[in-house]
Amino acid sequence: MKSIGILEKYKSLLNLPAHTKAISLGEGNTPLIPIPRIAQELGGGFDLYVKYEGLNPTGSFKDRGMVAAISEALGSGMKTVICASTGNTAASAAAYATRASMKAIVLIPEGKVARGKLVASVVYGAKVIQIKGSFDDALKLVIEITKKHPIALVNSINPYRLEGQKTAAFEIVDDLGKAPDLLCIPVGNAGNINAYAMGFDQYNKLKKSGLPQFLGVQASGAAPLVIGKVVERPDTIATAIRIGNPARGEQALEVIRKHGGKIIAVDDKDILATQKRLALEGIWVEPASAAGLAGLMKEIKENRFNAKGKNIVIVCTGHGLKDPDIIEMSQPILIEPTLEMLEKAIL
What we know:
Layout: H1 6-9, E1 32-34, H2 36-41, E2 47-52, H3 62-75, E3 80-84, H4 88-99, E4 103-109, H5 115-123, E5 127-131, H6 135-148, E6 152-153, H7 159-165, H8 167-176, E7 182-186, H9 191-207, E8 213-219, H10 224-227, H11 249-259, E9 261-266, H12 268-279, H13 291-301, E10 311-316, H14 339-346
Parallel strand pairs: 2-10, 3-4, 3-6, 4-5, 7-8, 7-10, 8-9
Antiparallel strand pairs: 1-2
């Protein structure tokens, strides 16, 4: 069966220039997975789903935006793209650039990127440069160099990134038949929460599908939108949202003002505990992806949100294979290859 990417599936709904040359790796069409056992643990009486974006081609939601940004850059005649990244953007940019026969350059903070993401960027053929600084320092550099040289910037400040990413909201409405009552989503550079708002707004105008409230969730060590100021040295186990000065932070706050909801912070220990809990549902995500559910759990347990009768969607942005080293595990049992020893081990 031919895989239809988001640029083809939602072509009439995407605000992309006429010169765009669409490429695809079959991104999008990710599952909306019910997790009723977790809903029951939180008191029950509501429907809870995971939008599992880790099943995109490079293992994260970034592919939706990247296919749009690089297709536009390809159509405009660019030969090279560049991005700053905590890992997922780098892997995605590298994959789609090589698909388009373009060169990719990625800047990452020294020692701050999960190995699974770094390896992917290298395998896809990107030129990877580490800087002695934070993601925010890297982003400043890529903005500066693209002003001086004919290199396409493909971070989420590129407007075409959001055009691609908003298709996840379309898919949720297509699957549920309406917008959820609440969308819980990790917040790092804040592009994704803005993209979902764009998608739900657009579908509501076309289909009267309704609008959700938003629960944006940051890590306590990287929560500038919660504390109201830039975090100079963001620190969290959730590398994908380890960002102290979100490029689209003000827009994210505007989404909350317009749609209702809030942005909160959760501790690393809660993020890791929630990651393990999701795995027991057969859904393995990287730590940052567990932040949305961790935030919902915190709000319900502390009686700040009444979930009864609601449809709630948790956005899980990246696959667990993005950061396998975070998992603590003992060595598997080693036995002699006999039935007796196997019975002894399992019975």
